[in-house]
């Protein structure tokens, strides 16, 4: 069974997702801590040693090496109604959320620093304008370090933080100091960036689709047009609300939602809907699984339906199966309560 080390400094949504999935969805996780647990006497009854002679009874010889008496077993620690274990698990999830948000903030800082450098050339920015943006970015990142664990663990905290570190937030800060010529240059720069990201996302979606379905030339062109429109909408959303579906491993960012099903957003909505909060109250695992499944199924329906004018029934069935398996992925299946997916997380103290 694969395990993720919670001490990884680059814990991302994957770690949080699986922590919640394994922690709250595993049936019987708390039921094994029985309030009435008692120690079991493992010492076998000792038979009296008798003598067949008329002499006084001799004491039994000490047992040999293979007959050592078993030591008494200390009573197992009891957790009343699993309360202490629930608190422990909640504290672990909070800490993982804290580390995740810090990692996301640092990754976003690097992206915005690259954007500032590009803006300095494309606009171009004065030295004072660039210095102001760098100070603005440093101030936003420093706030992350001062956030309490409770604030970081609040549902939606990650999404709100990413909005404050979006390219749109950066542009809004910059726009107040731009000249008219710089504003025109900024618009042109953003248009080129948006088009490049849209083309890249659409080609990626088409590649994934062609990996499952054999498209003829007519189908390919029409599908690419539909996928381009969908990609443009995602890129537009990303500019104001950056996605945190990536995972950094060895300095390389891995997309945990390559099919764009909105796994991160669905997870947050399901967590809140199931009553989970930052105070340590666990979500209702069944309600969270059901809500997450409903949200993801809706997104799968949307993606299948957008290609319905292009694909035949067989192709639509193949595409849906791809989304339900590879699209949902290990994280999605764990969130749906499929703990048999072969994925777990090492949680100390469990």
Low confidence ranges: 1-57, 341-350
Structural class: mainly alpha
Helix fraction, binned, reads 55-70%
Domain unit count = 1
Global Rg: 29 Å
Question: How many extended strands?
Answer: 4
Proportion of strand residues: under 5%
- The number of helices is 12
Mean pLDDT: 74
The dominant shape is: flat
How are the elements arranged and paired?
Layout: E1 2-5, H1 13-25, H2 83-122, H3 127-146, H4 149-153, H5 157-164, H6 167-175, H7 180-210, H8 217-240, E2 246-249, E3 252-255, H9 263-273, H10 285-306, H11 313-327, H12 329-335, E4 343-346
Parallel strand pairs: 1-4
Antiparallel strand pairs: 2-3
Helix pairs in contact: 1-2, 1-12, 2-3, 7-8, 9-10, 10-11
Note the main attributes of this structure.
59% helix; 5% strand; flat
Explained architecture:
It is a single chain. The protein contains twelve helices and four strands; from the N terminus they run βααααααααββααααβ. The strands form two sheets. It has a two-stranded parallel ribbon. Helices cover 59% and strands 5% of the residues. By secondary structure, the chain is mainly alpha-helical. It has one domain (2-29, 80-346). It has helices at residues 13-25, 83-122, 127-146, 149-153, 157-164, 167-175, 180-210, 217-240, 263-273, 285-306, 313-327, 329-335; strands at 2-5, 246-249, 252-255, 343-346.
